């Protein structure tokens, strides 16, 4: 008999080598490893074990030789439940692992079981128990498949028993490894009949938002991801399990399964715009129009508002420009009209830029003695862009020099044709000073609003926009709000921009305390935790907790955005930028007395358009210029603009020390003008070539050490000593360079004019020929517009 090694024997009986080694050790035959050679006595011992076993089993197992076919029924029988209980409950439903877990108890079962479970001597303490389990179950084997899919039933019985048997033996880890290994080895050898898969019932409908991965969709449908991948493949979509599927793909797959699918639109509670979506319009009632008055400087906006309100507010205004945003309500013929008093168009644009459509109607004031001016045109364009109806108030009709026809004529050129001339623009001649025509202006406003069918629902929770906000020493944050829909009440939990609070007190435009404010009403409120910004939206919430949550979330995200912007403006990266010289930026810090003016200034400054330079407003704020403004300016090489504010003592000192430029102004357009100039000065000069003259070479002279002198005649313009030249031969530029010497006779000349002869030498070029043309040019700086 030839010697046989452990692994060879193991192979012969289709058992793991380890099992053979263990079996031998039980009979006090020690072998080192699977490569060890077996003595004859060892072989006969093993034969007695394995041959017997296989002989006994064969009749039952039919096709399979020996231990395997054997182990299977027993495995199936006991193992599954126990295996599940032990290792991985979720996997319990699967065939193989359960069998392995099982093998441990079967050890005691001598012949066949021992063959299988081999590795688990450690499990001995619980053997009796588990074996009995196994035994008890074996007869029921055929039913096992079913039990396989009912892990719940299996777990309570087998699980605990298993666990206790595994752990005390300390073989948990090993056992697990062995199991794995065995699993690998056995799988190909002992394929279980495929378990009929019990498919989950398809849902009637699934929902998703934005997209789903293949795995997520599979889960929702209760199908294997591979099945979905296959279906996608059939539909021509190659997808992996983690691939995001778009709406179309999801719909296609769901259609395949005949499952209804619905996309959920996620509503972001912190997005205030959502609350501005129109609600049930049947509840709407008529509301007053909100009117903005715009026009060129000094054409009488303030006087008109003043006249309408019968008060005098013109006196005391710096530079005669309306600087504060306010809102007022008047009553005409029993109907209310709300007027927004804005500083020119800037605030109007700023609000629009923030998506706040506040104005229902624009009145454009044009002085009859002055006609259409640049800002008139701007105002028209803003109103047109906002798709707001326009009424033209032709003002200063009391003046002898008033020429309303001219105004009408000029406005026609901008598409505003008076009704009298067959157009549809309402022109109202007025005198803001005397009050003439004001009544008919108000009448027209009401007429136009009627056509516009302005409606709102006073019963809903209020929403609207911030007209103006500032920090008041005594009252804290004070905000002028325009209620656009619903009714605002004292005590309402409110989110205003990135601030929140409860409406503590409300004051009307005439300074009266009010308890509620309906649609189109401007009110000043207190009770916010911080100062919001003009143009911010406000929304009343159902309770204070929600308002706080939304407000805080908004504030946090706003801060994050602000921080990420601020980190860009550091001394470090500024230096880098300058060094690279790629981009020129003018950093500005804007401070003003009130938030409205800050907004207006910032909007105007950002509009400055000088090629190659960006205006960047790195910080804005209402209130005096402080030391921290200066340090920020110093760190980011910014200029500080103060509008109607002054630097405090510390700021002044810091600015001097750091060399920070502070510009103080009281009139908006002066600021803009100054900055624009500064920006033009900032730019690198740009040059363009200008041809100044031409000369024809009539003869050439070679002079040693000097080179070839071109004896020329200036045919056009002039040739200057410092001009650049091109040598043109038969229409082709043969050389381009600089003049070396320019002489009239023997003397050096600075320039030689048309009609004169001269001698020219060209730097690094001697190949001049008769009849060549010398074209002279200079580089001229372009003045930027
Ligand atoms: N004669 C006459 N003067 C008027 C009339 N309306 C305004 N003015 C005068 O025109 C000047 C400018 O008027 P404002 O109301 O300050 O003009 P504005 O358009 O508000 O000007 P800014 O606030 O600087 O943009 C003031 O001196 C007014 O008295 C008018 O109907 N007739």
UniProtKB/TrEMBL annotation:
- Cited PROSITE patterns: G_TR_2, IF2
Protein name according to UniProt: Translation initiation factor IF-2
- Binding of GTP occurs at 295-302, 341-345, 395-398
User: InterPro entries annotated for this entry?
Assistant: EF-G-like_DII (IPR053905), IF2_II (IPR044145), IF2_N (IPR006847), P-loop_NTPase (IPR027417), Small_GTP-bd (IPR005225), T_Tr_GTP-bd_dom (IPR000795), TF_IF2_bacterial-like (IPR000178), TIF_IF2 (IPR015760)
* Comp. bias (Polar residues): 139-150
Query: What's the family?
Result: Belongs to the TRAFAC class translation factor GTPase superfamily. Classic translation factor GTPase family. IF-2 subfamily.
GO molecular function annotation: translation initiation factor activity
Q: Where is this region: Disordered?
A: 50-204
Q: Which NCBIfam families match?
A: IF-2 (TIGR00487), small_GTP (TIGR00231)
Q: Where in the cell is it found?
A: Cytoplasm
List the taxonomic lineage. Answer: Bacteria, Bacillati, Bacillota, Bacilli, Bacillales
